[in-house]
Specification:
The protein starts with a strand and ends in a 7-residue tail after the last strand. The protein is α+β, with helices and mostly antiparallel strands. 29% of the residues lie in helices and 27% in strands. It has one domain: Alpha-Beta Plaits (2-Layer Sandwich), CATH 3.30.70.1060. The protein is built from two helices and six strands. This is Transcription initiation protein.
Length: 113
């Protein structure tokens, strides 16, 4: 089985007025279903109140992420699934619940990690 990252950037989530509680409830329900199905690894969002820093090999830090990279924010779920088709199904469920399209990526398997 492979681990899949299902995610979306914060800007993609456009919640219609008055629907915030519904979106939260429905997205949590999908995560609860993933837990019940035994495919849940972890999920959540990055805390944007904590500043991002880059840490060099010598331990020095620089404020901010990589300047040329995309902002890493929004919501994330990691699920362990038997097939890409199963991952696409879970991504579609999260897209419906969160009211925005999801990006799907698979983690490269490294037996040493």
């Amino acid at each position: 089985m492979a681990k899949y990252l299902i995610s979306f950037p914060a800007a993609a989530m456009q919640i219609p007025d008055g629907q915030r509680d519904t979106v939260i409830r429905e997205s949590h329900a999908v995560i609860d279903d993933a837990k019940a199905a035994g495919v849940y690894v972890f999920a959540g969002g990055l805390d944007d109140r904590v500043p991002v820093v880059r840490v060099a090999a010598d331990g020095t830090t620089t404020e901010g992420g990589y300047p040329d990279g995309p902002a890493l924010d929004g919501g994330f779920a990691v699920l362990e699934l038997p097939t890409r088709e199963a991952a696409l199904d879970w991504a579609a469920r999260l897209a419906r619940a969160c009211s925005c399209a999801q990006e799907l990526r698979v983690f490269h398997f490294d037996p040493a990690s």
